[in-house]
Amino acid sequence: MKKYVYAFHEGNKEMKSLLGGKGANLAEMIKIGLPVPPGFTVTTEACNKYYDDGQKISQDIIDEIFCHLHELENNTQKRFGDYNNPLLVSVRSGAVVSMPGMMDTILNLGLNDESVIGLAKATGNERFAYDSYRRFIQMFSDVVLNIQKYKFDNILEKEKRSSKVQLDTDLTVDNLKNIIKEYKKIVKKETKKAFPQEPKKQLLMAIEAVFGSWNNARAIIYRDINDIPNHYGTAVNVQSMVFGNMGEKSGTGVAFTRNPATGEKKLFGEFLMNAQGEDVVAGIRTPQPICELKNTMPKVYEQFVNVANLLEKHYKDMQDIEFTIENEKLYLLQTRNGKRTAAAAINIAVDMVEENIIDKETAIMRIEPAQLDQLLHPTFEEEAMQKIEKITQGLPASPGAATGRIYFNANDLVKAANEGEMTILVRLETSPEDIEGMVAAQGILTARGGMTSHAAVVARGMGKCCVAGCGEIKVDEINKVFKIDGKIFKEGDYLSLDGNTGNVYAGKLPTKEPELSGNFAKLMSWADEIRTLKIRTNADTPKDALTAVKFGAEGIGLCRTEHMFFKEERIPAVRQMIIAQNVEERMKALNKLLPFQKEDFIGIFEAMGERPVTVRLLDPPLHEFLPNNDEDIKILSKQINVSYNTLKEIVEDLKEFNPMLGHRGCRLAITYPEIYQMQVRAMIMAAIQVKKQKNIHVQLEIMVPLIGHEKELEIIKKLIVSTANEVIENSDENIVYKIGTMIEVPRAALTADDIAKHAEFFSFGTNDLTQMTYAFSRDDAGRFIGEYRKKEIFKKDPFQRLDKIGVGKLMEIATQLGKRTRSDIKLGICGEHGGDPEAIDFCHKIGLHYVSCSPYRIPIARLAAAHAVINNK
Amino acid sequence: MKKYVYAFHEGNKEMKSLLGGKGANLAEMIKIGLPVPPGFTVTTEACNKYYDDGQKISQDIIDEIFCHLHELENNTQKRFGDYNNPLLVSVRSGAVVSMPGMMDTILNLGLNDESVIGLAKATGNERFAYDSYRRFIQMFSDVVLNIQKYKFDNILEKEKRSSKVQLDTDLTVDNLKNIIKEYKKIVKKETKKAFPQEPKKQLLMAIEAVFGSWNNARAIIYRDINDIPNHYGTAVNVQSMVFGNMGEKSGTGVAFTRNPATGEKKLFGEFLMNAQGEDVVAGIRTPQPICELKNTMPKVYEQFVNVANLLEKHYKDMQDIEFTIENEKLYLLQTRNGKRTAAAAINIAVDMVEENIIDKETAIMRIEPAQLDQLLHPTFEEEAMQKIEKITQGLPASPGAATGRIYFNANDLVKAANEGEMTILVRLETSPEDIEGMVAAQGILTARGGMTSHAAVVARGMGKCCVAGCGEIKVDEINKVFKIDGKIFKEGDYLSLDGNTGNVYAGKLPTKEPELSGNFAKLMSWADEIRTLKIRTNADTPKDALTAVKFGAEGIGLCRTEHMFFKEERIPAVRQMIIAQNVEERMKALNKLLPFQKEDFIGIFEAMGERPVTVRLLDPPLHEFLPNNDEDIKILSKQINVSYNTLKEIVEDLKEFNPMLGHRGCRLAITYPEIYQMQVRAMIMAAIQVKKQKNIHVQLEIMVPLIGHEKELEIIKKLIVSTANEVIENSDENIVYKIGTMIEVPRAALTADDIAKHAEFFSFGTNDLTQMTYAFSRDDAGRFIGEYRKKEIFKKDPFQRLDKIGVGKLMEIATQLGKRTRSDIKLGICGEHGGDPEAIDFCHKIGLHYVSCSPYRIPIARLAAAHAVINNK
């Protein structure tokens, strides 16, 4: 028979997929002799069985749970529901991959009207016993019975008011008994049943609630964002309670073995005396820094420091540890690899290599490439910051800089963000309900909570700027305002947050490029040693090209020429070219454009030096350059001296039913060869000038878009060669260039052997290739893609995540066929997928030579390419 | 060294690709002992070399030609340019595949101011000699020197007028000498050189002209229409002259061994006494029927009959024979397999099987499937014909019926045809310059020319209705009118032609379905025995379904349901369904449509009996059903009681950037499952009713369009099954059905193994598959496809001719992957390519089970499927 329940001492850290992360680590800590309260874990397989059985815990599993419970009673010498010395347990979820704050926890389970007396007797602390019972009813009602929390809070506040006390800890036993009476009334009213008194029933209800919470809305969203499969399931940990709220010699805390924001090698965390469980992370009372424990309880602190060192060495990674002190005795409730910012991740990984704890490959694998994103985005400009008003300062909970309009709840914010607003979420404190808002916001500001509060932990995980615990602001969520020093900030007002300092500024702030630290460069150089894929950039301007080089670009994989056409001083000539009714008129307009294009290319070539530069010839349909509405057509008609009616007719005539599938890309050059001729002339002339003036041998690669038939490329290649060679022959420079094509039309992939006859390189344009392969227009898919995601037809938008099955198969076919014709054909990708780590892994596997992505994603791509090598060893 | 010139006696009929059809057959006739004037053939390889050498005949080839000329002189005992007994030759093109009227011919070559005297002496007929010289100069000037023919005609007419003679044959020697003098003046004036007197020079110039004519515009068009490769080249036949114009005991003629219009086994042809070469087919003088020769020259006639029989038996096919009688001696100048109408082709093939000349497979291969087209189109309705005015009668030159507006030249006609007009080309006589007009016209009417005139031969080849030699009409091509009995018909007036009777009617005439004769049915039954592909039809209505069954359809491969939605009484409900803002409203509208859809299906099911019927669920984007302009939106807003603004907003909101790639096909069912549910309910209810009332077990196949991802099909299959089964369970009939999908999205083909998990059949939708694979929108490709054809990027529009390389590769991939998952998966094609013989061959090869095409193409598909078996043996 399958085993669904494991005592802690039966497990170890390798059993994560069965016991969940928390359960496996509790088992491991017991194994290495650390003080962990005993307990047992109900496995993830039990969770899956629960769902397979129609959301029902089978009798077998129930029997196994009670068997382990009995063992726990023997072990602790306490009995469940006992009138003298009751066993109390915590019930906690424990997913395979840590999902902070997403799952529900119940403490003090086992208390009822009898065992609360037993607890009082056993601890000699009646107040503590009733406070625990009060907490238990509140928590169980919230999590298991789904009664809204504020109803209990109101009673607590009322009792505090009527007794004129400030803190929960000031409440007397009688106060607590009153509260419990009132709490029970609420339960009776809301559930039509009395609060469950039978501890075993409480336990099963709690376990079911944990299983149930695996599929609550916020858990699903979290898994979706983080690519956690639904079938993983969660384990449930049932652990005998220890009490941090047993008085002033008790406490509870959370600490990281290194600083999770910076990576600094120094214990980092917080604790609260006379507090239980979630009090620390919930941010309701503001906790003390961990170093204060040294003064409060030196021995316990020393013991904790030793434990922390031991755990870090044992796990060879920075640990995030939860502990409780019960009457000066230290208990460990959890350890796990700590979440950290990208900066911290890099510093920790590099430090650990230098401390001989891990090797370089391990260090590289410690950094999720996507995580680097948070390092690569701008910070505020110093100067601007000095001129603007700093209104307050909170905790620098997650680094980065954010500017946007403020919103006070996730709904309003998401709505604004969907309309393209930059946004800041302002909350008293955040909770899992706010997740969607946090995803959409540029930054998060909370009035309450510490560095390990929900807002801080989640924001760091997302690489999102967060300022937490900013106590000076008075947030009124109902009226959507906050006040500070008498000033009022309303919904929609601009605010700027500096996640590195915790500073909050009124108004908008300009940003600047990130500086990349020494450890960053070191880690990148290790990645560069390992990776085999080259990393190029998509860049259309000298500025982008320079940024990309700074980030480590080894070439340009896609330089689009159409954006150059839109500039103000050029667009009239572009439009003249389009409405030209014969070759002469068209040539005249093109000749005006030639010097501009040449200057563009000179700038880019100089920026790139002797790195390869792939220039794509004009791609979009011509009507994209023409005005759309009557007013603009009238203006243009005057500008270029063509009658309104003629112009209107031309505009109408150029409209297409399906522009995506229309007269664009190389089709333009089949009908109007003059356009590509001008572009080729401009690039060759630019290369000549850069050679002459800077002695740079430009590595020019001329790329033809939208090829579907080898003859298209054959014809256009001839055109390029004759045009280029004419310019070269009239100069005294020896300019060399390659000619290749985008592979973005399915037919090109399917006939890549024929196309390779005329192409020295292929570059996969996975944006269009995805559109054609799926027969999805990116512009129109919005109408149904939501439903597709909801029905799990695909997990991710195929425009964000490469469709390896379909589009990927075309890429593989093209790669194989292309190499069959030309074994040294150069292969790359320049679609947006080129910056996505998963796609980079795929490109590595199928044997591409480079990926090309936006400048800011280059370090991500460098790291992902190293990951690909290691993962595919 | 390569041999570029062959004497006739060196060749045989198997050497067509080298000697051309004419040369090979001349050789063959000599081989079997028939009277053929001796000569030699310059090969097609010489023609290709001519082009490879930059349009120059190499010295080697010239030497070889003169060597053979010398042999010919010895052979004929005549000398080239001789003053006493000169050798004269004809120079004729001879392509591999017969290209009637497209190539140029020169007779009497070798004549000059000296040899004309020699010819007079040798023949004792001075008039004949000068007439021959006159003809030679005229022909040589036209064909070789490119001088416009009318200039010579004018001189001839002037001489006739001033001498007051009617016929060319009445001209005296002096007349002819005058004419020759004037002709030479024209040549001098036009070419700045005297008419070439050196016979060898004449010969080389003529050969070059033949080579050159291989690439004249009309030859290129003809090859393009008839899929003749450009690299075939043409041979040149140089043959010693015999003279049909040597007096009243001479003549020339053309005859078919069987009737080329009907297939009747009876010599069919025409001859002209005292005439030369092209006089018969050029239609300038009206010739006599071949049977008249029996009276004129009984012995020659008998000899000819024997020769004709011999040739037909030798070639095992109906022969088209050219002959000349020189002083009562019969010479054969050409034999070839005769062009024939489809009806004749069938009758001849079937008769020859019954005469034990050929076997059934040969008979089947004798009919080009596409040729059947002409048999399968409507003829005029008898009744209507009796009511309408028959204005005249011509020769029934090519069968069929045509109604349309008249045009007097190809340009005007093509323009009108491009605007969608039905057209009739009216000409005095046609010439190769008219080809494009003939292609575009519904029918052709000529005033002059016989059954073997240019118009008649070409029209039969095209399967186009033609009435020729209609002498009563007076055609004025300049003023674009024709007169008959004082009535005037202007450009744009309606006319109707009956190609089977030669009758010409004023006005428009309704048509009726063709009757399919006994031999047709016989041949089809032979094809059916051989073929392995099933033939289905694309039919959306009971009427189409019945027509298809009559033509031999074995099922429906594509029944589109969207056309049903457009009917007047339904469209309001369709629109209500579309603008519905919630499921209830949508269901209400769909419930209105349900009975209509049910009735549609009942009609189709009854028509098809127990043949399989594949019904495709709704495919087009919903906005196609909504009005487009403000006026119509206003009308609709009143009809359905929805405010104009709301409606306008809905219409605008449904517009898409790329509807082809938008919210359509199965995507509609992912978002609005109710639509497919209604359709499925309607088909199952219809099947139940047809079972109950007619005891027909409907073979229903439900087809889902636009699948790109297996999950789409998984979800929709569940929807179909649950909907269908609910209806079935509530009835007492056991309806069975299959569920399958279109393969029309590249991704579906690439992931066909996954998709086949949920599909019992695949049907290739090659229309959309071509659009997606090429990234061409059919609606927009017009803007550039002309240039693509011109630059030979593709020979044929890929929407007409299946792209076997690209789209075909996807079909092969899908076929293999589909079978891997489900070995018994049913595979078919329902794109328009399903009726194209070349695509049918491809479908046979890759292992599809059926093709589906329009009803009128079914016999073509049946025959093509048999061809595919034989061709791929």
From TrEMBL, chains A, B:
PROSITE patterns noted in UniProt: PEP_ENZYMES_2, PEP_ENZYMES_PHOS_SITE
Organism the protein comes from: Crassaminicella indica
UniProt enzyme class: transferase
Top-level taxon of origin: Bacteria
Gene of this entry: ppdK
A Pfam family per the record: PEP-utilizers_C
Name of protein: Pyruvate, phosphate dikinase
Domain Pyruvate phosphate dikinase AMP/ATP-binding: 61-297, 302-354
Sorted UniProt keywords: ATP-binding, Nucleotide-binding, Pyruvate, Transferase
Presence of the UniProt keyword Transport in the record: no
Residue ranges of every copy of the PEP-utilising enzyme C-terminal domain listed in the record: 517-868
GO terms, molecular function: pyruvate, phosphate dikinase activity
